[in-house]
């Protein structure tokens, strides 16, 4: 029996402003139900570790960063220690994250700036954070939202792609996307929205082959049909804990197990 396919959401050019806002917020509610365990996928214990890990995550995966940071933070547990580090030593510790020479220089310079300008404490204002070496608005919002509890929208490649694919904005500049999407949601929702969109982009709404046939927001998406719509074929495109055969991992994540705990249990969390 043929599977009835969802209808596309109203095209963006025929949608009212209030209609767009309602649809966007409904998408957020559905994603909250789909990914109740959505959290930053970088491992960190404090603002210093998070800002360093986020700088290292440029042009690589969180999996690679999480593999490198335990040794890095064991050697340099705070801004003072990292600010006094030898460049060559740090390069070796972050080599596997790619572009390691630039990244090592940036995180040492960042640590020195935190020590010299902020008394060794990572600042909690976006205008201060973006003055630090290697830190842009994306990194600043990651730190604000997840280390300080200050709402922020993190526009990475996944968020940028999905914001346009979902018809939330036609902008391509990350700062303009941040502001346009921010207008659609309550400020208190910005940080968790960012996590959910990134989770969805990594797991279902992929750049090249979105798994439209198993997407929980298919009926709300004006781009439905750009990817595989057959449910069985789409299921084979799923990543991480949503992939067929990883139901045990999904249940553990829903139960509140941290990513570090899951790795200790032997689960691989990368793709």
From TrEMBL:
GO molecular function: 4 iron, 4 sulfur cluster binding; class I DNA-(apurinic or apyrimidinic site) endonuclease activity; DNA binding; DNA N-glycosylase activity; metal ion binding
Keyword Aminoacyl-tRNA synthetase: no
PROSITE patterns per UniProt: ENDONUCLEASE_III_1, ENDONUCLEASE_III_2
EC number from the UniProt entry: 4.2.99.18
Pfam name, any one: HHH
Lineage top rank: taxon: Bacteria
Keywords: 4Fe-4S, DNA damage, DNA repair, DNA-binding, Endonuclease, Glycosidase, Hydrolase, Iron, Iron-sulfur, Lyase, Metal-binding, Nuclease
Example GO biological process: base-excision repair, AP site formation
Domain HhH-GPD: 56-203
Cofactor note (record): Binds 1 [4Fe-4S] cluster.
Record has Hydrolase as a keyword: yes
SMART domains in UniProt: ENDO3c, FES
Enzyme class: lyase
Reactions catalysed according to its record: 2'-deoxyribonucleotide-(2'-deoxyribose 5'-phosphate)-2'-deoxyribonucleotide-DNA = a 3'-end 2'-deoxyribonucleotide-(2,3-dehydro-2,3-deoxyribose 5'-phosphate)-DNA + a 5'-end 5'-phospho-2'-deoxyribonucleoside-DNA + H(+)
InterPro entries: DNA_glycosylase, Endonuclease-III-like_CS2, Endonuclease3_FeS-loop_motif, Endouclease-III_FeS-bd_BS, HhH-GPD_domain, HhH_base_excis_C, HhH_motif, Nth
Cofactor entry: [4Fe-4S] cluster
Binding residues for [4Fe-4S] cluster: 205, 212, 215, 221
Chain's role: DNA repair enzyme that has both DNA N-glycosylase activity and AP-lyase activity. The DNA N-glycosylase activity releases various damaged pyrimidines from DNA by cleaving the N-glycosidic bond, leaving an AP (apurinic/apyrimidinic) site. The AP-lyase activity cleaves the phosphodiester bond 3' to the AP site by a beta-elimination, leaving a 3'-terminal unsaturated sugar and a product with a terminal 5'-phosphate.
PANTHER family: A/G-SPECIFIC ADENINE GLYCOSYLASE/ENDONUCLEASE III, ENDONUCLEASE III
NCBIfam families in the record: nth (TIGR01083)
Protein family membership: Belongs to the Nth/MutY family.
Entry protein name: Endonuclease III
Organism: Arthrobacter rhombi
Lineage: Bacteria, Bacillati, Actinomycetota, Actinomycetes, Micrococcales
């Amino acid at each position: 029996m043929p599977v009835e396919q969802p209808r596309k959401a109203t095209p963006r050019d025929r949608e009212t402003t209030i209609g767009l806002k309602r649809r966007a917020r409904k998408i957020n509610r559905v994603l909250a139900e789909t990914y109740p365990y959505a959290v930053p996928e970088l491992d960190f214990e404090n603002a210093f570790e998070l800002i360093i890990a986020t700088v290292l995550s440029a042009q690589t995966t969180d999996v690679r960063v999480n593999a490198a940071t335990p040794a890095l933070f064991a050697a340099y547990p705070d801004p003072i220690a990292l600010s006094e580090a030898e460049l060559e030593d740090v390069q070796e510790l972050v080599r596997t994250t790619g572009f390691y020479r630039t990244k090592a220089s940036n995180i040492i310079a960042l640590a020195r700036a935190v020590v010299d300008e902020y008394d060794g404490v990572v600042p909690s204002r976006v205008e201060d954070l973006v003055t630090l070496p290697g830190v842009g608005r994306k990194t600043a919002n990651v730190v604000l939202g997840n280390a300080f509890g200050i709402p922020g929208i993190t526009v990475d490649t996944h968020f940028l792609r999905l914001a346009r694919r979902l018809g939330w904005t036609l902008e391509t500049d990350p700062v303009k996307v941040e502001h346009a999407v921010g207008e659609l949601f309550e400020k208190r929702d910005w940080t968790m929205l960012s996590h959910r969109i990134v989770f969805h982009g990594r797991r279902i709404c992929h750049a090249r082959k979105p798994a439209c046939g198993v997407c929980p927001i298919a009926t709300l998406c004006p781009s439905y049909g750009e990817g595989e719509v057959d449910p069985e074929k789409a299921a084979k495109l799923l990543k991480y804990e949503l992939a067929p055969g990883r139901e045990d991992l999904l249940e553990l994540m829903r139960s509140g197990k941290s990513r570090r705990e899951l790795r200790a249990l032997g689960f691989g969390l990368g793709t």
